[in-house]
Specification:
Order of helices and strands: HHHHHHH
Distance between the termini: 35 Å
Oligomer: single chain
Strand content: under 5%
Helix content: over 70%
Number of strands: 0
Number of helices: 7
Shape: elongated
C-alpha cells in the first residue's frame, strides 16, 4: 500500500514539474528561451483538427436525426438539455421506459458511428 502511495506521489510531482518548469536566474538566456519554447508550445487546434471536428459533429447530427422520434427525443433531453430521467418521463408523459429508450438510442448511435468511434 505504501509503495503505491509513494509511486503516485512521484508521478504527481513529475507531472507538476513538467507543467511548471523551473528556470534558473543564472541560466544562459538562450537556453532559457529554448526551454520555454519547447515547453510552452501552442495548444490551439490546427486547421485540420478543426475540419475533423466539424466532420465528426456533422456525422453525429446526421446519426441523431436518423434515430426514431421515440428514441431521439429522450436522448436529446438527457444529453443536450441535461434533464434527469424523472423530468424526461414527465415531459414525455411516460413514467417507465425512459432509461431503456436512452440506452437503445445510444446503442443505435454506437452502431451508426462505429467507424467514426474507431478512428478516435
Amino acid at each position: 500500500m505504501a509503495l503505491h502511495i509513494a509511486a503516485n506521489l512521484v508521478k504527481t510531482r513529475y507531472r507538476f514539474r513538467s507543467r511548471h518548469p523551473e528556470v534558473s536566474l543564472d541560466a544562459n538566456p538562450d537556453q532559457t528561451a529554448a526551454v520555454c519554447a519547447t515547453r510552452c508550445q501552442d495548444a490551439s487546434p490546427t486547421p485540420s483538427d478543426c475540419v475533423q471536428a466539424k466532420e465528426r459533429a456533422e456525422a453525429v447530427r446526421r446519426a441523431v436525426a436518423e434515430l426514431p422520434a421515440d428514441l431521439r427525443t429522450p436522448l436529446l433531453l438527457a444529453e443536450y438539455e441535461e434533464r434527469s430521467q424523472a423530468e424526461i418521463g414527465e415531459i414525455l408523459a411516460a413514467r417507465q421506459g425512459v432509461e431503456t429508450r436512452i440506452y437503445r438510442a445510444r446503442r443505435q448511435l454506437r452502431v451508426a458511428l462505429g467507424k467514426l468511434l474507431e478512428a478516435v
